[in-house]
User: What shape does this take?
Amino acid sequence: MSYEVSAKEQDAPGSITVRRMDAYEREIRDEVAALLVEGFFPKLAYFTKNRRKLALAFRDGIRADMFYVAELDGAVVGMLGCSSDTRRALVADKTLLRRSLGFLMGSVAYAALKGSFNAPLHYGDGNGYVEWVATAERARGRGVSTALFRHVMDRPEYGSLTLEVLDFNENAFRLYRKLGFVEYDRKAARGMERQMFKERILMRWDKD
Ligand SMILES: CC(C)(COP(=O)(O)OP(=O)(O)OC[C@H]1O[C@@H](n2cnc3c(N)ncnc32)[C@H](O)[C@@H]1OP(=O)(O)O)[C@@H](O)C(=O)NCCC(=O)NCCS
Assistant: This one.
């Protein structure tokens, strides 16, 4: 289908191609897992600072029909994971976490993540909840995430998109505003979260 390979950023310096992860014929799970770890290392490093172990802990929890991948001049440099109310894009799996992080830390990670990764969402049918957006550091600021979002926004299955951004993440907040997301709520950080940020900003984009 045309929207599998459609989005190209005409005004970006390089050529950006976006497609859903399951449209790839070759296995790109390791590349996507590495991007996930690179983008969210501050959040995941509590469990281990070993990036290879972190990538192994999450690679098989990535749902290929819910992740979109961007290539810049042929190299995989960006990813976006979009959940629905019934399925989450990235699932925390106890066995995988224990296998890669060790029994103790794997158990700690599963206990910490199962609620926020695996629990059903309540944003309504036809809504995509954008949970995971990351561009490789070397390719940031070149329109990669913009292309990923535009691709997802063009897809017929999403009538609206929601997401959360932490208050310190100014680049991401600016990007979302530019794409047409509107802030609709803020939630104060709780417990240990307060060491990292003060508020989560909830944003929404509607197709019509
Ligand atoms: C936030 C992030 C995903 C943006 O990806 P990106 O591919 O660099 O984004 P784009 O190039 O499409 O940027 C579009 C806009 O976002 C803002 N922006 C993004 N990155 C920026 C940067 N490094 N410096 C300044 N502005 C930036 C700008 O407004 C930019 O528009 P402009 O170029 O017209 O000024 C990327 O910085 C990243 O991977 N961060 C770590 C993971 C993360 O925080 N994810 C979001 C969680 S909510």
